[in-house]
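Dear colleagues,

For the upcoming journal club I promised to circulate an example of a predicted protein-ligand complex. I picked one with N-(5'-phosphopyridoxyl)-D-alanine because it came up in last month's discussion. The inputs are reproduced below in full, followed by the predicted structure.
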Amino acid sequence: SIVFLNDSFVPMEEAKISPMDRGFLFGDGIYEVIPSYEGMLVGFAPHIERMNNGLREIGIDFAWPVEKWREVCENLIEKNGRGNLGIYLHVSRGTDSKRFHAYPEGVAPTVFAFAFDIPAAPVADKTLAKGYKVSTTRDLRWERCHIKSTALLGNVMHFQHGFERGANETLLFNANNELTEASACNAYIVKDGVVATPPLDNQILPGITRFILLDILRKNGSIKVEERIITMDEVFAADEVWVTSSSKEIAPVVEIDGKKVGNGEVGDVWQAAQTLYSAGKH
Ligand code: PDD
């Protein structure tokens, strides 16, 4: 595949980064994944805005005009076959001459981007949808989960927890047994037709799929939405559970720790929400 590294497009094999890059040594960087279906980027502007917020928050002085990022994304899409792609963007603090924790002065950030295949967007049909199985565990990540940091070991270990148990994702609960999110997705419950998802704070990533979905549901008005604290008991008593991310849109969860969610089948509210999302995503 053709990737982007520091202002040029090169074959993946030719893209080289120093081992002294702080992204490698410290996981010191910010990343994004933007979905693109047959050339249509979803959530482009809010993805770039979230990346700029992250860069500002960790003191990386780097902001390209949005148009420059769009050019990089569109080039990657064209050079990599225009299919269903996740566009990965990554800005690390850059390559230093020494390994010293403090932010270096005068070091240029490293910019890397590539495209990878993602599944076609889900068809909003509950008889065709793939039901997810998830595991659960205590959320042991840091208290800055709103930053989309490339330091993903906490998320990786949580994902692996579920993976080893045959699950597709892992739902995370804080010390008060409140739902936070999943290892690489936001999380939702549906009870009596009402969708609920945890509020935005330092415990979760402000997902762009979440942002677009809530916006579509609120504007449509046929499904009620709440952003509020959700307890573990509510998750196990839910009629439906969903997880969302850029590479999967809304994924219906049918099993948690081997227990059925609702009747164990993909639900009607999922079908209604995915229908609205498919039609209204932008
Ligand atoms: N994951 N929460 C976490 C911890 C995530 O890593 C992600 C995204 C989300 C969903 O955010 P969005 O809707 O903006 O994709 C929530 C990406 C896709 C990844 O790391 O591959």
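Two points we might discuss: The pocket of N-(5'-phosphopyridoxyl)-D-alanine is lined by residues 33, 155, 181, 184-186, 205, 207-210, 244-247 (CB under 6 Å). DSSP finds seven helices and 15 strands in the chain.

See you all on Thursday,
B. R.
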